[in-house]
Design brief:
The complex is a heterodimer of chains A (about 230) and B (about 200). In chain A, about 20% of the residues lie in helices and about 35% in strands. With about 230 residues, chain A is α/β, with parallel strands linked by helices. Chain A folds into 2 domains: about 1-95, Translation factors (Elongation Factor Tu (Ef-tu), domain 3); about 110-230, Rossmann fold (3-Layer(aba) Sandwich). In chain A, strands 4-3-6-1-2-5 form a 6-stranded antiparallel β-sheet. A 5-stranded parallel β-sheet of chain A has the order 9-8-7-10-11, sandwiched between helices. The radius of gyration of chain A is 18 Å and the shape is globular. Chain B has about 200 residues and is mainly beta. The chains are: A alpha/beta (about 230), B mainly beta (about 200). The interface of A and B includes residues 81 and 230 of A.
Chain lengths: ~230, ~200
Amino acid sequence: MATVRETREETGTARTLVLDIPEWAGHLPGQHIDIRLTAEDGYQAQRSYSIASAWSADSKTVEISVQRLEDGEVSPYLTEVVEPGDQIEVRGPIGGWFVWRAESTAPVTLIAGGSGIVPLMAMVRARGRQLFRLIYAVRTPADVLYADELRRRAREDFGLDVHFVYSREVPAGWPVPPQRIDIAVVNTHGWPPDFAPDCFVCGPNTFVEVVADMLVALGHDPAKVRTERFGGA
Amino acid sequence: MSIISRGFGGRRRDPSPDLPPGQYQAHDFPVLSAGPTPRIPLDRWQFSILTETGEEHTWDWKQFTALPAEDVTVDIHCVTKWSKFGTGWKGVSLDTLFEDVETAGDYVMAHSVGGYTTNVPFEDLLDGKAWIAYEYDGEPLHPEHGGPARLLIPHLYFWKSAKWVDRLRMMHEDEPGFWENAGYHMYGDPWQEQRYHGD
């Protein structure tokens, strides 16, 4: 059982929930939790949400970031109704493949599409001295989750590069017009295959499909490209 | 014991009796894959059954698609909680493929191009319960959805229906496959909600 400690608006349509889970024994970045909601008449709905936070034994909190889907059943509740103090039934952590392990020393390429940033943010937050490159594709600057933190980390965290790709609208003074992610971006802003990086790609299915194909075409070992997808084909 | 979620109404009343616990109905066809989608040319495609004695039965694409095929319409249930009703497939029944295979194995490890594996009790593959499917909705099965051919075991969670399957290996003992090693259930019955270890 989790208690909502705090909520933070990340964008106009995405919200972070900070959950207190007293019995939480820790998680790996990339894992998710299942949330179960129960209506008064007993009707239940379950969904999975990626964990956004790195585990810290001191805090016992878990953060998830929820993107509101207009036709959704659970995400409007989590982004609009839930308040601090509310209790939520959670289960987890779940998932043992799309995870980054802090004992790994290999360089890491992270590629996010939209709210696919969430599990990758947990990796960025858990990073030690390993070399990370993050490519984060969004429609507009207003769609960037964790915008301030990412800008700060890109400036201050040694060994972390962050590159944004805007497909519809770019910030003022941005050097290139809106563009979709392409193989040149992946090649320039990800680690080259010679470095044998671990690659994590998360986002809507079509995005992940295209980006994973690019990584393979660039010569990355398919076994080192881990994907997590949401939405239909 | 569940607590009431303050202010949660939910939208989908009277869920279909065909919907297993904890699932919701999807109308698109979500994709769940652990890595990039392999593209397998048909002239290099091969499927085999390897028995516990080392005997191997192999089919190439031409031999495989010449086998008697069945059209099946089934509901599918993904562990990520979507279910899709009335999906239409064409494929070869595992009963047909095992017709000439001598085996005393009780378990099967399905292997896929790219290294994915999943374990299934042998009896869950027989008696009209499983197919190697190569058409979806009247079209050749798209690579994203496991084409050229995938396992189809609709009575278990859909991760058991291995995409890009290229080998079934008979085993005496049950062993965990890819997702099973990553914390998912060894059997995966959606009606028992066997999602994760311990369910």
